[in-house]
From TrEMBL:
This is Uncharacterized protein. It is found in: Membrane; Postsynaptic cell membrane. The keyword RNA-binding does not apply. Its main location: membrane. Belongs to the glutamate-gated ion channel (TC 1.A.10.1) family. The keyword Nucleotide-binding does not apply. One of its GO terms (cellular component) is postsynaptic membrane. The lineage of its organism: Eukaryota, Metazoa, Ecdysozoa, Arthropoda, Chelicerata.
């Protein structure tokens, strides 16, 4: 941000801006320097145009700032700065009071702010009362588009204070003690008076604890062929809120029925020359993915295009002086409106130009099949092996158990006297019954052991296996 002082050599100022490579400039002009700034506005705009600066905000701290527009329009036309590539932000809140008929049918983006809602019921009632009063005094009543912000603020201040004081007087006896200007003592009825204030011409009247106005809204206005249209609003709490589809609709209007210069390079299969015996001309010479993409975009956005091969056959590199070559250079210098190719997005290139979402991603990738989620059941523990394997395991388990049972029956070492104290007792028992054999086998399989221990060497060997 730079301040424009009286007597300051403006060429030195813009040379300083050029050396810093600023792309957005704000000039702050005081009221006493207004005519000095207007005197040199042509040279100022010329310097801006030559330096390829993207945006200029001329802030003039005076209520006459809307009057700058007609003068600026004439000078901007002479240097070719009223095109679709230029944007103007009017910081005055009285843009709605300016006759913008000469700007409506151009494609220059003019944006401003508005505090007074010309369609609000409060303003309509105010104008109706003013019309009645003007008819009695034989004067012409104003229209909503001529109500300045300063006038509305003054009206709100006087009327709302009077209404609040009247409402407060109806509820309690209002006492106005003598207050010295040298003391920081405030009136005890001040907060009550503020709470009784109602919405005015400039919106809801409310204040924060510091005494600043808190609940108000600034309408964001954009000039279109129908006139100034509201495209969003700004509030201290929510900041900027833009209505849906405003940006996309406006951008599509900028390129509608336009012929865009498209720069590209020959790279298979994105941009290729057609092999034909005929002498092809213009866009018919090319084929490939990028050509198909351009054709589809032109049909959806209603624009025409002309494909041109970049002269140096380069994608775009920045030299030591900051200049670009290749396709990036042609877009930066304005020789081409856009570039389409297998162009890599880098951080340096993103500073110079704007990229769309990439239609191709490169790099090393590993592909694998996404595992299928199976439903968990009671027999999910059988999943590690097939049914054949489980059948073999069960068969081996039963077979080993049966063999243990038979070996125990055949071996004399497995028969014991259940009552050792009675030596003459002829009744012998075998601890390896069929059920115990199954239990011994499952214990060995699970490596948990059991209370049973084979005595015969043959059975011990079989249990070990």
């Amino acid at each position: 941000m730079y301040q424009f002082h009286t007597g300051q050599p403006y060429r030195d100022l813009f040379w300083k801006i050029k050396k810093t490579k600023e792309t957005r400039v704000v000039l702050d002009v005081k009221r006493e320097n207004l005519f000095t700034a207007l005197k040199h506005v042509e040279d100022v705009l010329y310097e801006i145009s030559c330096d390829a600066t993207e945006a200029l905000v001329l802030t003039i701290r005076t209520k006459l700032s809307p009057l700058v527009l007609p003068k600026t329009k004439t000078q901007a036309q002479q240097v070719g700065m009223l095109t679709e590539s230029h944007s103007y932000l009017i910081t005055s809140l009285d843009l709605h009071t300016v006759d913008l008929e000469e700007f409506k049918y151009g494609q220059t983006k003019i944006t401003g702010y508005r505090l007074v809602d010309v369609d609000s019921p409060e303003l309509q009632g105010f104008l109706k009362d003013w019309e009645i009063m003007s008819s009695r005094m034989d004067r012409k009543a104003p229209v909503p588009q001529t109500i300045r912000t300063e006038t509305a603020l003054m009206y709100d201040a006087v009327k709302l204070f009077a209404m609040g004081l009247h409402q407060l007087d109806l509820t309690k006896a209002v006492d106005f003690p003598v207050i010295s200007c040298d003391m920081s003592v405030s009136s005890s009825d001040g907060s009550s008076l503020i709470n009784l204030m109602k919405p005015g011409l400039t919106g809801e009247i409310s204040f924060d604890p510091q005494g600043f106005r808190s609940s108000f809204s600034l309408d964001i206005m954009t000039l279109k062929s129908e006139g100034l249209q509201k495209v969003g609003h700004w509030t201290p709490r929510d900041n900027v809120t833009v209505e849906d589809n405003v940006t996309s609709d406006y951008d599509s209007l900028l390129i509608k029925d336009k012929t865009l210069i498209v720069t590209t390079v020959l790279t298979d299969p994105y941009m290729m020359l057609k092999e034909s015996a005929e002498d092809l001309q213009g866009n018919n010479r090319f084929e490939g993915y990028c050509v198909d993409l351009l054709k589809e975009l032109s049909q959806q956005l209603n624009f025409k295009y002309e494909i041109r091969l970049v002269k140096d056959r380069a994608y775009g590199l920045q030299n030591e002086s900051g200049d670009w070559n290749g396709m990036i250079g042609e877009v930066v210098t304005g020789k081409a409106d856009l570039a389409i190719a297998d162009l890599t997005i880098t951080s340096k290139r993103e500073v110079a130009v704007d990229f769309t979402m990439p239609f191709m991603n490169t790099g090393i990738s590993i592909l694998f099949k996404k595992p299928t989620q199976k439903v968990t059941t009671l027999f999910s523990f059988l999943s590690p092996f097939s049914m054949e394997v489980w059948a073999y395991v069960v068969g081996a388990y039963i077979g080993v158990s049966v063999v243990l049972f038979l070996v125990g029956r055949l071996s004399p070492y497995e028969w014991d006297n259940p009552h050792p104290c009675r030596q003459n007792d002829q009744v012998l028992e075998n601890s390896f019954s069929l059920l115990n054999s199954l239990w011994f086998t499952i214990g060995s399989l699970m490596q948990q052991g059991s209370d049973l221990a084979p005595k015969a060497q043959s059975r011990d060997s079989l249990g070990t296996v």
